[in-house]
Amino acid sequence: MPDADRVLKQLGPQPLMMVLSGPSGVGKDAVLSRIRELGYPQHIVVTATTRAMRPMETNGVDYIFLDQDAFDKKVTDHEFLEWAEVYGNFYGVPKDQVREAIASGQDVIIKADVQGAATIKKLNPHGVFVFLAPPSFDELEQRLRIRKTEAQIDLDRRLETARDEMQQLPLFDYVVVNADGALDDAVAALESIIQAERWRFPRRTLSL
User: Fold this and answer.
1) Contact 118/21 with Cβ under 8 angstroms?
2) Which of 10, 51, 94, 109 is the most exposed place for a label (fewest CB within 10 A)?
């Protein structure tokens, strides 16, 4: 049995690193935007990318938009927790944002594709890994078609990738369904996970 004094010293909230993943079009950006709007205290890491900025996006808020040379330099300087090429564009999770937030006692949420989540889990298996899922695959396809940000060939590739990603659920600790018209329910589920995990015993130990 563990010593009671030692156990009591470990009780109390500790900062968490949550990795939110899921297929393209499932609504990861919408969920994170809603978390910001509601004023929750987590630090949401802004991913760096080489893809072109879309209408209504803001540099430094939605993504950190970089040209290829600037992105490559950050890779060379080991400034990313993980990085990958996805559909012809590069994405990276800045280490400094994660480290600074954790050091200040703030919970962190990282958005990553399934490939990126797997990479992060190898480096930090004690993070909290959440898969954001659609109510059905047909609904996911409909969302991607309505979005109209991809050519047909790219849409078909994303759907094929999504089918493969849905097979990776054992990688994750939790699954949250993001249904149409129920964005706040998905946000509430994530916040419930965070609150429960902050009091988990024994503690998850991060290595950054």
Assistant:
1) no
2) 10
Predicted TM-score (pTM) above 0.90: no
The CA distance from 16 to 205, in Å, is 9
The band of 122, judged by pLDDT with boundaries at 50, 70 and 90, is: very high
pLDDT in tens, 44-64: 999 999 999 988 899 999 899
124-140 per-position pLDDT tens digit: 999 999 999 999 888 88
pLDDT range class, residue 202, cuts 50, 70, 90? confident
Label residue 166 exposed, middle or buried (CB < 10 Å: 0-12, 13-18, 19+): middle
**What CATH number labels 13-196?**
3.40.50.300
Strands in 128-133's sheet, in edge-to-edge order, are 43-44, 108-111, 17-21, 128-133, 174-177
Q: CB count, 10 Å around CB of 138?
A: 9
Q: Domain boundaries in the chain?
A: 13-196
Give the three-state DSSP class for 21.
strand
Helix (H) or strand (E) holding 146, with range, is helix 137-147
| Alpha carbon distance 119, 6 (integer Å) | 33
